[in-house]
Fold each of these.
Amino acid sequence: MFRYTCLNPIASVGLNKMTDTYQKTENLEEADAVLVRSASMHDMELPVSLCAIARAGAGVNNIPLDVCTQKGIVVFNTPGANANGVKELVIAGMLLASRDLKGGMDWVLENKDDPAIGKTMEKAKKKFAGREIQGKKLGVIGLGAIGVLVANAAAHLGMEVCGYDPFLSVENALKMSRNITLVKNQEDIFTSCDFITLHVPLLDSTKHMICKETLDKMKDGAVLLNFARTELVSDADLKEALASGKLASYVTDFPDAQTAGLPHVIAFPHLGASTEESEDNCAVMAVQELMDYLENGNITNSVNYPACSLGKTEKPARICIAHRNVPGMISKFTSLIGEYHLNICDMISKSRNDYSYAMFDLDHELPDGFTEKLSGMDGILKVRIIKS
């Protein structure tokens, strides 16, 4: 029996995929797995029983990754599950920045009691005239699941699209429209694009990537869209660029105390993935990742441990080991297995920076004392024994 807890409401379409071998608990201390969306886990005491955390979404800044990794807790996210929802909001943001739709809607509300509104609006609408996005140039920085969808959609709408991503995967490259131009450096985007949209993770290297230096390179009257993370943009430099007219608009799904309500800022309250479809997709993917890990030990879409799989558990015993990535660990494991006269019929080992994950399928059940001896080895973080 596996026990799981939900720190946020998780769509039932995902939870319903769990079988009778899963039991929900409200007590984190007895949980084998956690499903979470936005709840912060940084101040939580993580129990020894906890094996995995699945974030129903892409960002994991609410999860203490270092602590989890050192405890052998595998953290999953759901890349791409909410990509379409975010893509649609980015397109909406571009349209709102190009056409003063909100100003026009506000005017209608303010004049709703005017019996001659049908005539007066013909004069008033001149104040809300805008421009079309067709024929304009869009620069997409970051061509992951969301960035590629945004680029393709913009190209279909008649925009000239260029993209930058030094880590573009083969999978995403194959999904990208042939009409999109790849550039070798960000400066080409900053200097030539009418619209620039950010789809990169928040790292030390990307924090405040949009600052005075990069803003000065942009075309006068450019529109900047940030549907990734607040800290990618320097608030002080952004405010100056908006005030001077260097930027015509800043569209963001991550407003903060400095940008909320600022003139020429179009801000949404983190609505990118707030669709029924996105929440369902994230829930289903998160649950499937947890189930495959708990039942088979396989790792897919982890942010702290390497991808690793031996398929479905079919042998009498499967050993799954999270350990430090130091020389000689695999030989220690195989020596212990040989010491107990056990036969390895399949194995795999993968590493990710300072940590590794190994899996062994054995022809026999494990004898008494084996697991305790394995768990006591130096460098071991967590051992799980899975039986078919």
Amino acid sequence: MAAVDVILALAKVFIMILPGYILVKLNLITKQHTEGVADIITYVTYPCLVITAMQMEFSWEILNNCKYVVLIFIGVVIIAMLISKLLTTVIKLPAEQTGIMAFMMVFGNTGFLGLPVLDGLFGKEAVFYGALCDSSFDVLMFSIGITLIRQAAKGETKMGILEAMKGLINPCFIGSLLGLCLFVAGITLPDLLGSSMDAIGSATSPLAMLVVGTHLGRIKFKDMFTCAPAYIVCLLKLLVAPAIALILVKLIIGGGTLFGTVIVMESAMPCAMLCVILSEKYRADVEFATKGVMLTTILCMLTIPVVAIALQYI
């Protein structure tokens, strides 16, 4: 049953990718169109999605769990950056791909794919914790994550504090911060505004899949499966990242908790589709991002069940 749930969740992803792929093959959508859609996601739909996702009743337990999620994922981010830096030297990874590799190793498809998988494997309580992880995750993705993509776009392996702080000034991070403030203050948006923002935010996943499909349509499948660094991304994201998360969970939270299990499972999700969107937005190596996202999404059908089973015995 668990394997079926994983496959069904992944099937939804691939179906939503098809329109963009077909439109590119028919020459009905251009690179300029793709860039415009990426801007709409970055400036409009994703901020709305994040804010409405955080519209939960305030609870000290939830806030305390947020602390653990942030601590663990910051740890994963730091370790991922160190590994990416090491790989730059060992396999001579281009500077334009270093930040993207670090992003893909840390930030996964925790919402659109992660939540359905958690529901199928562990039930509704796991989905609640998964949503909590996803919200906390967004805050990091739109701060540290965007800095990594901007760094890759500039072809740099280092970035000053001032430049890193500039990465925080973006609609997605501001939306995450606003959503967190509303949650802590216990403020619920009026139904008219909240439902409208929820409808706008729900467009994020299909639009993101459309953009990924357009980039996939411009890549030869042969090139995707012969990209050695993309396979390294798969190893790091699907196996190494959850292993790091598991170690940090054991050290910070302890073993035997559903919350800890959810954090590890969310770390085992394939690369976030938003990596392609942000690479498009900041003019980074979109082709490399697309290859990593697609390969991890395909191979996770094998690795997610393995991680889920292994967690029962660790």
Amino acid sequence: MANKSSLKSTIAVSLTNYLDAGAIVAGASGLTLWQNYLGLTEVHLGWLNFISANCLGAALGAIIGGFLADKYGRKFIYTYNLLVYMLGVLLVMCSVNFPMLLAGFLVTGISVGIGVPASWTYISESSEINNRGRNICISQMSWGVGPMIILLLGMFFAPGGYLFSWVESLAAAIGGAGLAVDAVNVFSSRVVFFSLFVVAFIAWNMQRKLEESNEWKASKETAKAKGEDTGLIHAFKVLFSNKTAIKTVCFLAAIYLTWNLVASVMGFFQPHIYETAGGVSNEQANWMNCIQWAIIVGTTFVVSGLIDKTNHKLLYIIGLVFALSAWIVVVGVGVNGPVGLWSFVVLWGIEGGISVQVFYALWGTELFPAKFRAGAQGFMFFVVRGLSAVWGLVFTYIYGENGEGFTIAAYCMIALLVISLIVGVIGCPSTRGKSLDQITKERYGEEY
């Protein structure tokens, strides 16, 4: 069990993950509503995914936030970043055209990217040796709780939902009684984004009160005593002048990229895919997605009690076996019937609780010294989410307007997951039960 201070700070920082996943799913769950309201095409949807918290926006934010966290401290990020997030969400809430919606998704995405490297780093640095994996899992659980709650809100406020009458009243009060049906319907998505604004405000008040990371302070004091340059450009040079660091970046980027190319598409387009390829209604699609996130949260909870006591390579393999099984179902059975669709929901849900992202978040904080720990993660996140943004655009063309290319896309997903499995098994590090300082000295010597 993590001690009280470690657990408290983990929960506060984990709200960043809630807001990250929440922003992605809030956009996804209301995608059809925005599409109808603004007359968007599949290409428009691809661009929204391209610059969102799912891809490019987060990529740009991560490379900025990672090096800022190493330069000015983890607390610096928590003092200001969520103010940017609230601005982005506010833009989406008030959108009346596609450029405004696009700008809101971009600003929100940048904020998400800034916060992610700092959050994983801070959690790892403030954890006890035997609770580091568990605390990372807690942060991953919030990545599941966020979508689950956002999807529930989306369903309750959606047209035909239990609380839609309240949405209609709100729309009439703000826009007048003469609003078109699509303009009224999209207010349900505006309300969902408002809930993210409220959570972001609460999280900002919690995070700005956190103490600075002791690991970061010690690293800065050491650098100051040696008279070392602590500038952002120097940190980048140091990262890419160390052979161990370069190998580590390649390993982590490889396992995370191949997995994230699959997960990013599912995170943004999943309800839309269930509707078009699976042939279910918007409400049914959101219920299925919500159930899947509940499975993810439950599985992550189980893994949180095992990860600090169990062989990491074994857990990694099990997670990817479930991931591959889910996509093999798509190819073998298809998702246009209840058996295939529900099998995919359950298998991909279990995979989500023991996903590559759990190990990427853990290893990404363990395998680099404090000097450029957040910066390295920020760079990798930039590469991964940036390429995921390009893949999201490509996917819309492979998938087609009505899901006619879904089977071809599934074969692509299987190939990517196989690569993630092979690279992860070959390069799996032995870090369990070791302090961050011990891991750093084993990998980089006394210099860091």
Amino acid sequence: MGNEKLTAVYEQYELPITKSIRTRGAILCESEEGIKLLKEFRGSLGRLELEDKVLNYLSEEGISTDTYVKNKNGQILTLDTDGTGYVLKNWFDGRECDVKNGQEVLAAVRSLAKLHKGFIHISSKVAESGTQEGEADLREELFHHQKELKRARTFVRNRRKKSEFEYAILKHFEHFYRQGEYALNLLEESDYEQRKKETKEKGILCHGNYNQHNIMVGMRRMSIVNFEHMNHNFQIMDFYLFLRKIMEKCNWERRLGFSMMEEYERERKLEEGERVILFAMLSYPEKFWKIVNHYYNGNKAWISQKDVDKLANVIHQEEEKQQFLLEMRAKQKD
């Protein structure tokens, strides 16, 4: 973004920008009213206006989020000289959540549970503000993943010359594929359909991309940012995504995993149906599918070392993951 375009955008706001620094996909700005973040926006205006309302509702609930700054015309979306749209957000003086810091991880879980409670409290207001798209059907998604795995296995089997990476896929394929079938069956036997219907009808939202990059740690508080993927979906999916990412980075350390679950439930108790969905999604071999699918859709003449290392790590972690799932299942039955 050139200086001329920046100036044209900044002039449309009341607050004077004293300094700006390029950051990942945005411009970090210093102003007399604190730190702001300027980002290019190419989405739907209706979606943006709804997000603005939701974030303001959450702020009223005491939840720290990156709310939008309106320009001189009272609009969220600001156009530059060539018609490109930008948004300005209230931002924070802090850093991303450290996934290797157990206390920060647990604090992030508490923040997520509070966010979910806030979403529930404002659900009626959200419903009044208009509809919000939901995520794809989980069962269809897993079913599609299973088909992709089988397609990739057929391809590997038919290759005359196989690499060690491809032999590893074949060697461990049945184990991971069965895990996928097990997870899919759990969802089929659960109250998934009814829950999905209720979530939509009640207007309950989830963040949609809750990870360490969207959790800002400051001196006094933890803030949640980047709600671009917010949607009507099971809130347990936010927790699943965060829990799985952390567990993968920590070799499925059982004590940490159960501490995260306990920390979440201190703020918001899970219903039995949510526990089933969480267990089913954790049972699915997401990482194995992702690696194999990336291989199948990529340049098979050159297999990246990164994929080789990732597959070896997934295989290495599998025993610890299954032990975690066994204990989790036992706790659910108690």
